[in-house]
Amino acid sequence: MANLPFTGIDISEFNGDVNIEALKEKVDFIIIRCGYGGNYENQDDSQYENNVKKCERYGIPYGVYLYSYAKNTEMAENEAAHALRLLQGKKPLYGVWYDVEDSSLPAGEALENNCIAFCGTLEKAGYYCGIYSFLNWMEERLSGPRLARFDKWVAQWNDELDYEKPFGIWQYSNNGLINGQRFDMDLSYKDYPKIIGEGGDEDMTKEEVKALAQQVYDQNEKKYKTIESVPSWAKESVRKVYEELELSGVGKGEEVELNGSFTYVRMLHVIAKLMELLEEEASQNTEEDA
After folding, report:
1. pLDDT tens string 219-244
2. Of 66, 92, 287, 290, which has the fewest Cβ atoms less than 10 A away?
3. What is the pTM of this model?
4. Which of 167, 201, 222, 177 minimizes the C-alpha distance to 5?
5. Which residues contact 112 (CB under 8 A, 6 or more apart)?
6. Where in the chain is the domain with CATH 3.20.20.80?
7. Are the CB atoms for 62 and 52 separated by under 8 Å?
8. Contact of 169 with 189, CB cutoff 8 Å
């Protein structure tokens, strides 16, 4: 695949029956509208399933977006249910996006609440979710700190993007011409298939990193309580360090309770390897002196 940014398009039923096979060598990704508004079948995008099947058939990674009309969080949650129904069995490696731009939408805290309700519901279901809107809304109505943790797909049809906050995708044109057909054109500045496929985001906040670290620490603190419970790759090292350095612990033999977590086990393993290297070096020096 080419270097970042990756080139893509976004499509809906308004583009008709798109010849996606012919786009395979032209774009790196496609973001597909699944529908609009609440969870009603007559508000599904009529080309959604067709577009997804063709992307899967021709090996083009895709994302999904839903156009919002929500006036409150109850309606936003219903829109989330709409997206989740249409996402069953799908693997959108370019994420799920909440299209927030309609003039009927509320302003202020109510709009932020809608975004949190929709994106939070999709995240709980295991999907990578972000917000789409045009530049003015991103700067004025969607700039609150509560929305900072969500990725942004920014629309500004221009030669340069003026958005100064973190973002992932820029929709830079609504009039791109590929194979004689007009499309919305996008540039992705993140490798979403890598981020989503491997289950990690390169832009985790400090708070998210701390929370993840604490979770791992807590889980392993409870898991590795004795030498017997230590993973096989580290057990001998841990035992050796405990014995040779006369570390304290409650119990005897395999049932000695360790004074630390999995991080501590790894540290002991490293100490053991260091001790071995020092012993080897000392032995070599003795042989040389002899």
Report:
1. 555 556 666 776 676 677 777 776 77
2. 290
3. 0.69
4. 167
5. 142, 144, 146, 147
6. 6-203
7. yes
8. yes
